[in-house]
Design a protein that fits this description.
The structure is a single chain. The protein has two domains: about 300 residues, no CATH class; about 150 residues, Reverse transcriptase/Diguanylate cyclase domain (Alpha-Beta Plaits, 2-Layer Sandwich). It has 15 helices and nine strands. By secondary structure, the protein is of the alpha+beta class. The longest helix has about 40 residues. The strands form three sheets. A five-stranded mixed β-sheet has the order 4-5-3-8-9, with helices on both faces. A two-stranded antiparallel ribbon has the order 1-2. Helices cover about 60% and strands about 10% of the residues.
Amino acid sequence: MRSYSLTSFTLFREEQPVRDALVVFILTTLFYFFGAMLRMVQELSLFWPLNAVMAGVFARYAFLNRGIHYAVCYVAMLVYDAITTQWGVASLVINLSNMLFIVIVAQLVLRDKRRTNYMPGPLSTLHLFYYCLLAAILSSLLGAVGSVGIDRQAFLPLFADWFSEQFSTGVLFLPCIMTLTRPGAFSGFRLRYLTPVAALLLSIGASILVGGAGSLAFPLPALIWCAVRYPLPLTCLLTLVAGCAEILLVANNIINLAVDAPLQTPQLFSTRLGIAALAMSPVIVAASVDAISKLMKQVALRADFDFLTRVYSRSGLYEALKKIEHTDDSHLTVMLLDLDYFKRINDSYGHECGDYVLASFAQQVKNLVGEKGLVARMGGEEFAIAALTADAAEGYALAERIRNAIEVYPFRWQEDTLRLTVSIGIGTRSPGNAPVSDTFNLLLVEADEYLYRSKEMGRNRTSIRRDEPVLF
């Protein structure tokens, strides 16, 4: 099936601060214009996305958090107002309140990133909820003061309107902005993938038909279904769309919260806050599912790879062997490698040095083997290699190349240079029609026998069955 992918594009580049400042100015102007246009359409005047979008931008790109970039953002707002309004000094105060929301949210999120190895998760999502709450309160206090002379309303109604708008818009938009990614390669979809979206549409339709305050919660089960089925960025986008749709439907009395009375400002205030609270539930679920998925991948990775040496573990090697494809005339060569007198390293330099030597040795062997075979740590200082070779001679030559390279390699620890050697035992034969993993088990026993012989004969040597056509 044909697959599609989008070409790479980077909005900001840390090495180009002038370009970044220009992009910040353009984005601020664009979303300021977008928000102003929404103000002119009664049905859409409930949203002011600029603050949430720019807070998300500054939070995602830590290198943008310089005074100059915040100043550029603020100047862009003032320039737009100077061209399109007659607000004067009020513009300074109102846009300062916008900047207050942006700076507070961005700095708090960045603080989380500095404190932990930040990944979108349930805890960070809950933090985002509280950050929006704090930023909305503080920015609304300032914004309401600046708007008193413009809107000719009392302070408290203005504060309530500012706060509910800032908080609900922040909670709806920020998770989407923070997790927004460019779609990668994808193939044709199947109809059943759209079932959670269909359930979401039906639940919104049910909210319209039934009405009442409880109808606002109808989409929640469908959104949680989306959270379980879809990736985190898509869930955040669907939550944003559903939350905005509900606010619009309530504002236009299509979802009738009070059947016997027209919509009042306190009801819209409550609606915004209620939807914002509901919107966090699917986002938290999606973040939890995403975190669990990443954790499961890490657990699987740790099971297949040795944590210290970054080569296969014993179990990981067997899993990798199942995927090897071989021809009838190819040989499977199995080597067992043991670092000579490794215990002296631990006794003389400590276990930290021993760990360094093991990790460095493993990487040297892995580089020498390359694509020809698989390297695994079998335990302690013992490693195994499984390689497909043309014959026994090629397998022996690879083992000798490894042994000689380790003999001359300088393992540097602090001010000392350590010289090590390795003993190797080899088992080799053609797998024929047998599974590679079964042949590996037989050859591992043989390699272990010849490793013992290498040690008996003075170490730092490679031993193989004498009837193989190999020059000794």
